[in-house]
Amino acid sequence: MSEVRTERVGSTLLITIDRPQARNAVNAAVATQLAAALDELEADPALRAGVLTGADNTFSAGMDLKAALKGESPSVPGRGFGGLTEAELAKPLIAAVEGFAMGGGFELALGCDLIVAAEDAKFGLPEVKRGLIAAGGGVLRLPKRIPHHLAMEFLLTGEPVTGRRAGELGLVNRVTPAGDAAAVALQLAEKLAENAPLALAAVKKIVRAADPAAVQHEEVKKLMQSADVREGMTAFAERRAPKWTGE
Question: The pTM is what?
Answer without folding.
Answer: 0.92
